[in-house]
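User: Run a structure prediction on this.
Assistant: Running it now.
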Amino acid sequence: MKDKECLENILESVHIIGDRLVLIENNISDMVANTADKTYYPIGIERIKDIFGVFEYEEAGGGRIKIDPIWERQNFVFFKAFERKCYLHKLVAPQFMGMMTEFYAKDMLDLIDFSNGGGVYSPRHKNHNINSNLSKHSWAGVAFDINPHKYPRGSDVKPPQEVIDICAKWGYYSGYYFRVRDPMHQEFFRFPI
């Protein structure tokens, strides 16, 4: 019953947001990756703002921020399925839910842990440094961390290739390939076409 409910919620969300996604996809041909040779590139913070919006915020101490609650209500949806829950930006919700459904279908959910400091929504500056740009984690679901205890920043420990490939299929680039490795980190680079 839970699975059926989850899939219905996913389909409902895709239907609600679908028209807007199609319009956005028509304007982002520069973001479509060449999936045949796995040439993926992360996109910059200014492009993230162009796609997902700019919000007002207040500093909340320790490099964290408090985003305008009206903007949050207008742009974030709540995802609860597969014993996981998180906020997601409405434009990435369908692809995030599709990705999680694929992990579920392949019996791989045990490889995706958002607890222990990982997560999907973390409104803050990059590396909690007030002098840095906003973190892409501030746009819920545009970036997320999985299994931070297993794949800490700076580590050469690589997540399973199938996890990286599924995330890439659904439009997320692995931080494992960053200059300074961040194997727990996945971030938006395109809408799946």
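The radius of gyration is 16 Å.
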